[in-house]
Amino acid sequence: MLESHTKLDIDWEWFNDRLDRQDGCERIPAPHLALKQQIAEGEKHYNLDNCAHHVYTSEIFRDWLPEDFLSSEGYTGEVLIKVLEHPPASFTEPHTDGYGSVKRKFKLDKDACMKRLWIPCGDYKIGHALFIGEWNVIHNYSAGDVYNITPWQNTLHSGVNAGVELRRTMTITGTVDGS
Amino acid sequence: MLKQDRLDIDWQAFNKRLDLLDRCECNAGPLLEHVFDKHNIDTLDLSDSLKDLLNKLNSEKQIYTSDTFVDDLPEGFLGRNQIDPKSTLIKILGLPSGTFTFPHTDHYTNTKKQFGLPEDAIIKRLWIPCMDYKFGHILCLDKEVVIDYSAGDVFEIPGNIMHSATNIGIENRRIMTITGAVVA
Questions:
Q1: Looking at the predicted structure, is the pLDDT value of residue B56 above 90?
Q2: What is the pLDDT of residues B95-119, one digit of tens each?
Q3: What's the number of domains chain A is made of?
Q4: HEC sequence for chain B
Q5: If B61 and its partner were Cys, which of A73, A103, B29, B33 is the partner (CB 3.0–4.6 Å)?
């Protein structure tokens, strides 16, 4: 089972409150491109009804993190920080990660060495889970638990809010030293 | 929730039987307003858009029923699980990819109604996956998430604990529920 390797120790109540108020960030519908449909008959099962969610973006998310957090995780340059918000009854369809949007945004080489962290912004609630491959199900976590999901970028994974409360997760994606 | 037994039948043949609708019938999952068996859904203040989405997802599910499901169980199975065969309701829930059951607690209203049981009857529900665990197929039970099961593993779901099941994978999922009055 995939374990969190460290803690992003910030005031998550404060963080979520800022998101609620869109203070220093923007809440937009997740782009349709997020529907990657890499599975057979994907569009039949996963569509803009059950995969509709929002994403928070900000140029200053980095400033909301502890000063040494990104460097302690090995990030060497630009990072893209997003917060995904899934309402009850919404999913991220099974997909793999190519980090295409990050590479395009920062004009990175296709073979740039990348790292993605997955961090829940709230404690585990019933119905909230991240599936990675056949045997990894991330659940029963606390806000700020940090999971490095980079090794599973080519493994089918999906996320779900099959619960009754809003679910927010942060992803941090950027370049790291390949050596 | 503990795995408490095994239902050892030929699951491949059983699933084939469902595929062929052989001695069983299949209906779409009920609309929320017809889900009498599940407490919580009707008490939550759900937005109209969420209700619409849940109804859409429910309509994609399949509910298989049959007069012969109970008789087809191996001899002694209900007895050793303290369930009265005369008041047993068996359903198979088909969850296509991208569907789930909304978190709920169980009130067993359908079973009580069908068999004329009193409101305070002691009821037991067994939850049995019809196929081995696959990516995206979980059962959420309060803080517990059940994976790594095999077809035929028998779990008992306490009715008062909120639970939900998901299929956020790529293969269809089927679950058998056996609900009946507990033998004194």
A1: no
A2: 999 999 888 888 898 889 999 999 9
A3: 1
A4: CCEEEECCCCHHHHHHHHHCCCCCEEEECCCHHHCCCEECCCCCCCCHHHHHHHHHHHHHCEEEECCCCCCCCCCCHHHHCCEEEEEEEEEEEEECCCEECCCEEECCHHHHHHHCCCCCCCEEEEEEECCCCCCCEEEEECCEEECCCCCCEEEECCCCCCEEEEECCCCCEEEEEEEEEECC
A5: B29
